[in-house]
Amino acid sequence: MADPKEPIYHETLVGDKPKQWLLHGASKRLIDKYHYHSPKVGVVASYTPKARDVKDHFGIFRGVDQIESFAQASIASCGTYSQCKKQNCRPADLSDDFVPVFLSIGSVTYHNYLQKGETFINIGIIKFYKFRQMICDGRIYKVPPGLDLDEYFKDFTDERLLAYDLPKDFKLIAELFDITGQAIKKEIFNSL
Amino acid sequence: MEDRKQILKDLLEVLKTVRTIDPAKLEGVTEETDFLADMNAPSTELINIAVKVEQKFDVEFEDDDIDRLGSKVKDVIDLIILAKERSK
After folding, report:
1. Mean pLDDT of successive 10-residue stretches along chain A, which has 192 residues
2. Residue ranges of chain B with per-residue pLDDT less than 50
3. pLDDT tens, A16-35?
4. Is residue A4 part of a domain?
5. CATH code at A48?
């Protein structure tokens, strides 16, 4: 367990690095930064596709990676945060006993595409969280070039998040429904 | 045994409200009926069923209860009885 003298988690994910919450390696991490987080409501997190993300794919960030990025921002980051808070532990402690599993996708509707270097945000809305299972809906938007996302989202609210209240120069890329993940005990996972 | 019959009857009422379960599959349900194999419910639906069962039976399950929960109707009935005993 963590040193009781050190703060295990902050009030939100904002200010933490995604690598603190997403334990897989850097090449599979598709989140750069958290900009807004309301632990019972949802999250805004950004990513800018790198050369490795579009390699052998026409310079385009794959749709499946959009889903992965969204899942990392929402069910993985928010689910891990909530479980760590409940157990008063760090993600690394949690990983001793649990495996984070991407369980299912309801549906995804793509409206546009993303290329290398085009920053986008995932807006994840928590629909359900119980028994270590989280279900999120949300959207992905391409961000206007040069926008300071930290500054833009510093006064964001739950109401605006739930309404996807963004200016028109944020371009809708995808809508995602029923993205579901669960932290499954290792002994159960290994017996599947 | 009478309690289990009543719980099964009430559980069927819960299952009627689960969108992914075909109402036709609820005919002839017994304690040995399997949610996944016999009702074709997605595995992710078990948690939704557990939440609805908590509300219907006014009980509270622990995370570990759900980890250990089997996929048969009798497993849910056992868990309801356990949770009721625990709350006494």
Report:
1. 59 94 89 98 98 95 98 97 91 89 95 98 97 96 97 97 97 98 88 74
2. none
3. 999 999 988 888 999 999 99
4. no
5. 3.10.129.10
Interface test with B, best of A86, A130, A191 (most B CBs within 10 A): A130
A160 contact partners, CB below 8 Å, separation of at least 6: A166
| Phi, psi of B9, deg, nearest 5 | -60, -45
A-B Cβ pairs (cutoff 8 Å, strict):
21
Q: What pLDDT is attached to residue A151?
A: 97
Binding-site residues on chain A for chain B (CB distance < 8 A)? 103-104, 130-133, 180, 182, 184-185, 188
CB atoms inside a 10 Å sphere around CB A115 = 12
CATH number at residue B31: 1.10.1200.10
Cβ proximity of A117 and A138 under 8 Å: no
Residue ranges making up the domain that contains B36: 2-87
Q: What is the spatial distance between Cα B55 and Cα B43, in angstroms, rounded to a whole number?
A: 20
Q: How far apart are CA A109 and CA A34, in angstroms?
A: 24
Domain that holds residue A176: 18-191
Contact A143, A170 (CB under 8 A): yes
> pLDDT tens across A77-108, in order?
999 999 999 998 988 898 889 999 999 999 99
Residue A3 lies in a domain: no
ipTM score here?
0.81
Quote the number of domains for chain A.
1
| Number of domains, chain B | 1
Nearest C-alpha of chain A: how many angstroms from B62? Answer: 7
